[in-house]
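Could you please consider the sequence and fold following this short note?
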Amino acid sequence: MDFDIDCYIIMLSDVEGGFAVYNKADTIQRFFAYAIDAAISGLCGVLPVVGGLIGFLYMLLKDGLMDGRSVGKKLLGLRTMTGFGPATYGDSAKRNIIFAIPNLFMIIPFLGHVLCGLVDMIIWGVEIYRVMTDPYGRRYGDEWAGTQVVSEKDM
C-alpha cells in the first residue's frame, strides 16, 4: 500500500520520535465505529467467563486487524495510522488498553456487564472530550501510542 506524502504533515513529538498528523476524522463516524466494536465485544461477553477474555482481547487488539482497521472502522471507512503506516497490534494495545480492561469485568455474570458499562461511560466521556477539543482528533490513547484515526478517503 502506498501513502501519498501530500496527505499528511510530519510533526515531531516526544512519542517515539515522531508521528504523522492527518486531517481530523469525522467524530460521528468514529463514534459509530466504536459502537460497532463495543457491540462485538459485548456479544462476546455473553459467553460465561471466556467471553470476557475474548472481549478484552478484541478491544485490545482491534486496531491492529486489517491494516489498522477494526471491524467498525472498516465498515465506516476509517483507519488507525502511525507516522510509519497502519497501526500494528502493539500500537493497538497501547491505544486501547484503557477500553480493554473494563471488559475483564464481564467475567462476572450480569454484574460484570453493568460494571463494564459504567466504567466505559466514564472513560468515553473523557476520551470524547479529548477527540472533540484536539485539532487532530487525537484521544489520550492516540497520544500514548503515537496514532491517529483518519478517514480512508483522505489518505
About this structure: The two ends are 11 Å apart (CA to CA). The CA atoms of residues 57 and 100 lie 7 Å apart. The chain is about 50% helix and 10% strand.
